[in-house]
Amino acid sequence: MVRPRYHPQPVKLFIGMLSQESYFFKKLKGELQNIYGPLDLESPVWKWEHTDYYSKEMGTGLKRKFFFFQELIQPETISEIKLKTIGLEKKYLNEKGERRINLDPGYLDSAKIVLVSAKNFSHRMYLGNGIFGEVTLIYSGNTYQTLPYTYPDFRSQEYFDIFKKGRQLYKAERGQRHP
Questions:
Q1: Are strands 131-140 and 125-128 parallel, antiparallel or unpaired?
Q2: Residue 54's pLDDT band (boundaries 50, 70, 90)?
Q3: How far apart are CA 7 and CA 166, in angstroms?
């Protein structure tokens, strides 16, 4: 059997969170750090009004926050990380069995932002363990570029700005120059 010569480079893990209750951001910060180590960046809490996709399950008035982890990961571990975050979501279900917190892990490197999901779609690739991945943004021309399927919130300047900071940290951790 011929082995490929490519050895994937480590990537920067981030986890996006959606909830009505900011309490969960504080609560999950500690739990996630216990699993994935210290943070080196976190976003402010933003209003999340981009679609009504989660309103039936989680209500309205949702808020978004991102945590970026200092320790780099191997990209092939992202499906296992998604499974762990699904388990954390289930830990905090409401009395109807609905989520009160949505956790969206992903990673970035110098060229792209990758998100993962348990839902398949035409632009997603199967990663294993029932998890699919997609390139959500690409970095080109000193900024992030969207793709036809990029989520509406990931098209915002505030996301571009926080992910550029995450990218700078990543490049510094990898010993690369940053533009």
A1: antiparallel
A2: low
A3: 22
For residue 73, give both structure tokens. 């990961």
Cβ(127)–Cβ(133) below 8 Å:
yes
Find how far residue 107's CA is from the centre of its chain: 6
Q: How far is CA 167 from CA 14, 80, 109, 110, in A?
A: 11, 23, 7, 6
Residue 113's SS3 state is strand
How many residues can be counted in the chain?
Answer: 179
First to last CA, the chain: 40
Quote the pLDDT of residue 32: 97
pTM of the model: 0.90
Amino acid sitting at position 60? T
d(CA 43, CA 16): 9
**Position 176 confidence tier, pLDDT thresholds 50, 70, 90:** low
Query: Exposure of 85 by Cβ count < 10 A (0-12 exposed, 13-18 middle, 19+ buried)?
Result: buried
Model confidence pLDDT, tens digit, residues 57-100: 767 889 999 999 999 999 999 999 999 999 999 999 988 888 88
Reported in sequence order, the residue ranges of 81-170 that DSSP labels E, i.e. its strands, are: 101-108, 112-117, 125-128, 131-140, 143-146
